[in-house]
Write a sequence for this structure.
């Protein structure tokens, strides 16, 4: 089995891209990734592409051939859809294809356009990731679902809105120097607490924004990297995926995300590392409570301890385990189908030393990316390591 | 594939199940005692296809809830409204809380299920009223 290297990464700025098409956004990210890798588009053997709501946002289904063409590739493509974990799955399947020996060069990533819809329309589109019969018809929105989890968490383990506010404050602070981030500005705990209520107990500043954007990675086999003398120092050494019941009501515990635990255990075993080895992480903080539950599911904190991690400084840039140095979904933005690819792009930059926040993890050699779908009915975890 | 048998609960639909909540609600129970909700052909816990209907407890208790302030367009229920997951022992059910204000709902409150028609969508709307 061959190893997999991240040869290049490409991102659009995340935010509102008025008047631009999804294909234009993805082309920008793809060309940037190929340029960063020093790989010719003709060498790409397959596109693994993540997208969630394109059929609703742009009335464009069947996006893989559209995006393959937009990126100037002359190969086939496949779209992966697993709600907010779409790009994570696209990357995972590319890793598996390269490891199997089937392919040497893959482009993997994703795109989402969201700001061309009204807030109510986005709410409706995102709700499609919930269980149609038992949640959507019962009025559960995406923020509402995480609110149900947050209330269950507070009830089971304690903690409260102020703890969550510290998660938002941390991630906004991390986003300030990140040129790809939607919000390059700090916020205060007071601002977070005073923001309007969206779905009790969650307020506006507990939620990620509505975002347009694209991500792309050039993934290659170790042999291809060596033969072509590529500067590809970061390897994807572990991949894992977990699943859970779609509806919250069907889970044993609404304050836990076992799909992420399963994904992490698979990825750790695959890479031959443990949670103790991880020095920097990008986790799926679509809501502040999601980051808390991720930290616990990934084995970084015991149940009930994750809620205080940001407030204690454990996960801030000066802490033992900096989390979401990119700004996270909260401040960097969450173009749903692009997010999983962007997390790995950011982690690669952090480990290579060319991210504006790399100095916070100057000696780090092991990083983790956690990408979740819906209310973590799907989860994909990747372990990245500096290979040389 | 066998022809659908009207006496097999796995083939009953969601709408019928929802309508039943107005009277004696039911859930699906497998041969090993696991509870789940229809439509269902197989127990998600153990894979048993030996499923039968069991009577839903008359009242449940609020397991978690949220007052929703931003709703999808055209949903038919104007925000703010309270969505709750209510625990009925073997199963939990999600619905909208009626007859009680958002700031007066609490985890553990007893609720009984009911069904309305969502005028905007024509779908059944699962609701809970204080028991
Ligand atoms: Zn069973």
């Amino acid at each position: 089995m061959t190893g997999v290297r991240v040869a290049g990464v490409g991102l659009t700025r995340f935010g509102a891209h008025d008047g631009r098409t999804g294909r234009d956004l993805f082309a920008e990210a793809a060309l940037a990734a190929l340029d960063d890798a020093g790989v010719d588009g003709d060498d790409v053997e397959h596109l693994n592409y993540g997208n969630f709501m394109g059929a609703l946002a742009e009335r464009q289904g069947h996006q893989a051939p559209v995006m393959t063409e937009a990126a100037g590739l002359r190969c086939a493509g496949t779209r992966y859809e697993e709600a907010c974990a779409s790009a994570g799955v696209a990357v995972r399947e590319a890793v598996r294809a390269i490891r199997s020996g089937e392919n040497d060069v893959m482009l993997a990533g994703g795109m989402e356009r969201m700001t061309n819809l009204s807030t109510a329309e986005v709410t409706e589109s995102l709700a499609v990731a919930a269980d149609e019969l038992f949640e959507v018809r019962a009025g559960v929105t995406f923020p509402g679902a995480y609110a149900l989890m947050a209330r269950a968490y507070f009830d089971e383990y304690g903690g409260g809105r102020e703890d969550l506010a510290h998660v938002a404050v941390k991630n906004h602070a991390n986003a300030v120097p990140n040129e790809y981030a939607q919000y390059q500005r700090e916020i205060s705990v007071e601002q977070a607490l005073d923001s309007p209520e969206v779905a009790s107990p969650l307020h506006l500043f507990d939620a990620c924004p509505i975002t347009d954007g694209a991500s792309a990675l050039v993934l290659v086999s170790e042999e291809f990297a060596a033969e072509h003398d590529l500067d590809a120092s970061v390897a994807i050494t572990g991949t894992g995926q977990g699943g859970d019941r779609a509806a919250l009501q069907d889970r044993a515990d609404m304050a836990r995300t076992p799909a992420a635990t399963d994904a992490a255990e698979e990825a750790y075993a695959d890479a031959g590392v443990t949670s103790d080895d991880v020095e920097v992480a990008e986790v799926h903080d679509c809501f502040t409570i999601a980051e808390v539950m991720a930290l616990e599911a990934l084995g970084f904190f015991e149940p009930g301890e994750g809620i205080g991690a940001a407030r204690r400084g454990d996960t801030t840039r000066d802490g033992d385990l900096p989390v979401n140095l990119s700004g996270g979904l909260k401040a960097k933005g969450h173009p749903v189908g692009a997010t999983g690819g962007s997390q790995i792009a950011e982690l690669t930059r952090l480990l290579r030393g060319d991210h504006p926040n790399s100095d916070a993890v100057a000696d780090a050699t092991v990083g983790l990316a956690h990408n979740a779908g819906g209310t973590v009915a799907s989860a994909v975890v990747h372990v990245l390591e500096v290979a040389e | 594939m066998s022809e659908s048998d009207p006496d097999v609960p796995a083939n009953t639909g969601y709408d019928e199940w929802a309508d039943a909540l107005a009277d004696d609600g039911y859930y699906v129970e497998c041969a090993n005692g696991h509870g789940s909700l229809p439509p269902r052909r197989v127990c998600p816990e153990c894979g048993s296809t030996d499923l039968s209907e069991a009577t839903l407890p008359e009242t449940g208790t609020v397991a978690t809830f949220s007052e929703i302030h931003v709703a999808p367009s055209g949903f038919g229920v104007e925000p703010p409204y309270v969505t709750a997951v209510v625990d009925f022992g073997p199963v939990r059910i999600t619905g909208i809380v009626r007859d009680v204000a958002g700031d007066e709902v609490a985890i553990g409150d007893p609720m009984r299920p009911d069904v309305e028609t969502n005028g905007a969508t024509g779908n059944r709307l699962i609701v809970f009223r204080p028991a």
